[in-house]
Amino acid sequence: MSSLEIVEKDERKISVKLKGIPLQYANALRRLCLNGVPVFAIDTVDILENSSVLPDEGLAHRLGLVPLRTDLERFNEPVKCDCQSETGCSNCKVMLVLDSGDVDVTKAVLTDELTSEDDSVKPISDKIPIVQLAPGQRVKVECYARLGRGREHAKWNSSNVATLVETDKEGERILTVESTGALNPAEIILAGVEELGNRILEFKDMIEQLKEE
Predict the structure, then answer these.
(1) For residue range 139-180, what is the model confidence (pLDDT) as tens digits?
(2) Where are the domains of the chain?
(3) I need a labelling partner for 152 at 20 to 30 A (CA). Which of 49, 61, 136, 212 fits?
(4) Using CB atoms within 10 A of its CB, is residue 103 exposed (0-12), middle (13-18) or buried (19+)?
(5) What is the DSSP letter of 123?
(6) Under CATH, to which class is 40-149 assigned?
(7) Which phi and psi (to 5°) does residue 113 adopt?
(8) Quick one: fold of 3-37+158-206?
């Protein structure tokens, strides 16, 4: 009989015991937990002003790597959104704004200055460095975040680490997932299980269609 049991859990990491689950399914779940669960990340950056030493491309890249808290219940992946628009809508895209203002002393711009139009999608920490500014320098940008998956780009990885370890008992394995902070680790496991179930059903449907042909 197959089962899943929580062994250890905290805010950033969870370990679950998998019993009676074939290795190929357990490993597929591990991979889904790593890069198959959608999370938010900044995808488009409009540079309105940037007089820092960091080039526009570097600033956009750094913003894209800021982990953002994610609410999978409220938002859709763009390809699954009813709007079907290239520009997106409030159900699949969130705007974040950064304006350092003119500075008169050397300062580090942190993620506490990156404000979101939706409070449920924001940086996981206020203390992540973005850029260092010297007196007289300024950055002002508009960013647009969307849901994506890690297989498209690492900035959409839902986990930093996902490991699968055999125990001393046959047919028993420990899956450990460490979240980036975008999602609660338990949410990653549940979303991964749901995604795996959907893929198995899709595969079965494909097999049935081939048989009919």
Answers:
(1) 999 999 999 999 999 999 999 999 999 999 988 999 999 999
(2) 3-37+158-206, 40-149
(3) 49
(4) middle
(5) B
(6) mainly beta
(7) -95, 0
(8) Gyrase A; domain 2 (3.30.1360)
